[in-house]
Amino acid sequence: MFLHLGNGRSVNTENVIAIMDIEKASTSRITRDYLNRAGKSGWVSYCSFDMPKSFVVTLDRDLTERVYISSISPQTLKKRFEEAVLGKENLEEKICFT
After folding, report:
1. What NCBIfam families is this protein classified in (predicted)?
2. How many domains, the chain?
């Protein structure tokens, strides 16, 4: 399954390590350093020229790390991820019983 990140960019859900709120995560010096290092290493892809709201970290099968900056909210990406992985029916059951 794939997770749509905006502007036609999608990633395989099997490769997703983290979906982060860029505003909240950027308050941490460690996260800022990580994003700076990722940018300098060429790991970062921008999915939109709009105001960034989230970033998604992936690890490909060949162990290539990537960071995707998206203008889609982390809450929306999380919901899309859960729907893709669990399926809409299973997600509704999970929400009802947990």
Report:
1. MtxRegRemB
2. 1
- Write down the residue that tokens 């997600």 correspond to: 91
Angstrom distance (rounded) from CA 4 to CA 34 = 23
> Which position has the token pair 């300098």?
40
* Ramachandran bin of 10, using left for φ above 0, alpha for ψ from -120 to 50, beta for the remaining angles: beta
Residues 10-62 pLDDT 10s: 999 999 999 999 999 989 999 999 999 999 999 999 999 899 999 999 999 99
